[in-house]
Design brief:
By secondary structure, the chain is an all-alpha fold. It has one domain. It is 97% helix and 0% strand. The protein contains one helix and no strands.
């Protein structure tokens, strides 16, 4: 094989290797970018799902707290009504005693 032919073949093989290397590198880079993009999308989806779950949990806790306040307020109102009813009954009894005492005089 002549040195010129050897040089031409070497140059051609070098060019082929460069072109193949370029496309292999480009393919690997695109795969990494695609993987990173998919990973980013998955992270965003997970974050949205977590945020929605936290929102629902906070809403349920707020509803439970409102219910507890309502029950507590209703109990307090019942207790006040009962106390007012007892006071009214005592006043009526005193009034009756006074009326009875007046009629007996």
């Amino acid at each position: 094989m002549s040195p010129t032919m050897f040089t031409i073949i070497s140059i051609l093989l070098s060019l082929i290797c460069l072109v193949v290397g370029y496309f292999v590198r480009k393919t690997i880079a695109e795969a990494k970018i695609s993987g990173a993009r998919n990973m980013a999308e998955q992270i965003v989806e997970d974050a949205k799902r977590d945020a929605e779950a936290l929102k629902k949990e906070a809403l349920l806790e707020a509803k439970d707290e409102i219910h507890s306040f309502r029950v507590e307020a209703e109990q307090e109102v019942r207790e006040r009504r009962n106390e007012l009813q007892r006071q009214e009954n005592r006043l009526l009894q005193k009034k009756r005693k006074i009326l009875i005492a007046k009629t007996n005089l």
